[in-house]
Amino acid sequence: MSAAADDSGDDLDPLERQVVGFFVDGVRVLGLPRSIGEIYGLLFISRDPLALDDLVRRLGISKGSASQGLRMLKSLGAVREAGGNGNGERRTYYEPAVELKRLAGGFIREQIRPHLDSGKSRVRQLAETAGAVEDPDQRKFLSERVERLEQWMRSGGRVLPLLQKILGQ
Amino acid sequence: MSAAADDSGDDLDPLERQVVGFFVDGVRVLGLPRSIGEIYGLLFISRDPLALDDLVRRLGISKGSASQGLRMLKSLGAVREAGGNGNGERRTYYEPAVELKRLAGGFIREQIRPHLDSGKSRVRQLAETAGAVEDPDQRKFLSERVERLEQWMRSGGRVLPLLQKILGQ
DNA sequence: CGGATTGTTCAATTGAAAATGAACAATCCG
DNA sequence: CGGATTGTTCATTTTCAATTGAACAATCCG
Questions:
Q1: How far apart (Å, rounded) are the C-alpha atoms in residues A134 and A48?
Q2: How far is CA B100 from the centre of its chain?
Q3: Which residues make Cβ contacts (< 8 Å) with residue B30, sequence separation at least 6?
Q4: Could you list the mean pLDDT of each consecutive 10-residue stretch along chain A, which spans 169 residues?
Q5: Domain residue spans in chain A?
């Protein structure tokens, strides 16, 4: 039960802090919560898979945060349960997915696609509303703008698969 | 001074509300403040350029928000000052840039590049820290992970120009 | 069974980012 | 000049999403 020089000690060492900080900033750019970056960051720089409890202890976050964070990371395909935890271990350990392809794919699928799809349907609605405008000049102007939005949505749809392809190596 | 059927009236009509709502959600996905979406949305669906005061009145936002919002939109290249406002008009009017290429370019230049660049330099730092680790096995593991991050950064650097190209038509 | 361990849920709290608004330029013009 | 108009800045307030923490499953095992 000595704590010194024990990797399950409570505090992060400087390198771990650096990495966690890197990912905290990284996920903020993506609009994801800080805890996601902390959890993924620590997993990324840990040799061995970690359990929920490890994350709580080492990062000093609540069980709630860790649980929800892991759920989101799982849904993004950014972490997976580590199979080979030997012995009669009951709790589940997690390890990071480190292939950019997989990470980008999950992010696109979970965070971007849904917005793009709902955007498309809102533009369709918009087209209807604009089509019902009385004044012909005004209607023409509005149609042009709506047409522009449709263009944007099409570009978006074309970009995503391409993105995945490029990041896939 | 009659307000009815006057486009400078205070409230948004249903179509305008729809469009503004569309952009509010859009910019949230990009991690930009709501007011940015409101301002750009109203400009996008207005036939004539609008001045700061118009935005304040029609959107019901503060002068401060409008001023800061316009500044950011200008820096993103998403709005421009409308030249041809005739008469002895002193205040400046704004119109939206509607080319996706330009919008994406501005966003990449202002919001993504800086993060990517700072990310690269942080990874360089990381490499140093990892190189100074005593235990050879641990050092090897860390080097692999850092190498992975360098890979990511390179991919990011390659993706951006490509993105701009695809969105450029 | 029962209590120990592991994980989830969700109402309440917190904190970080955005919006406000009032004071302060800057420019115009009679 | 002086006061009217237009726009900016920035300390305070507000807002809303993230986090907490306590209650609640669920599973294990002696």
A1: 67
A2: 12
A3: A31, B107, B111
A4: 49 95 97 98 97 97 98 98 71 97 96 96 97 97 98 95 86
A5: 14-96, 100-167
Instruction: Tell me phi and psi for residue B155, to 5 degrees.
Output: -60, -45
Say whether A155 and B138 touch across the interface (CB within 8 A).
Answer: no
The kind and range of the H/E element at B93 are strand B93-96
Q: What's the CATH number for B14-96?
A: 1.10.10.10
Amino acid found at B160: L
CB atoms inside a 10 Å sphere around CB A73: 22
| Residue B164 CB partners (closer than 8 Å, separation 6+) | B101, B104, B105, B108
Task: Evaluate if the CB of B23 falls below 7 Å from strand C.
Answer: no
In this structure, chain A runs to a length of: 169
pTM of the model: 0.92
Closest C-alpha to B37, from B20, B50, B16, B62: B20
Rounded-to-10 torsion of CA A129, A135, A137, A138: -40
Q: Is B6 helix (H, G, I), strand (E, B) or coil?
A: coil
Q: How far is CA B91 from CA A157, B51, B87, in A?
A: 40, 7, 11
Kindly report, residue by residue over B33-66, the tens digit of the pLDDT: 999 999 999 999 999 999 999 999 999 999 999 9
**Which residues in chain A have their CB less than 8 angstroms from residue B166's CB?**
155, 158-159, 162
Torsion, Cα of A83, A89, A94, A97 (10° steps): -20
d(CA A70, CA A117): 26
- A147-155 contacts, C-beta under 8 A, 24 or more apart: A148/B98, A149/A123, A149/B22, A150/A123, A151/B100, A152/B100, A153/A116, A153/A119, A153/A120, A153/A123, A155/B100, A155/B166, A155/B167
User: What is the maximum span of chain A, computed from C-alpha positions, in angstroms?
Assistant: 81
Which residues on chain A are in Cβ contact (under 8 Å) with B148? 98
Backbone angles phi, psi at A142, to 5 degrees: -65, -40
- Measured in angstroms, the CA of B152 and the nearest CA of chain A are apart by 7
Asked if residue B168 lies in contact with residue B101, where contact means CB atoms within 8 angstroms, the answer is yes
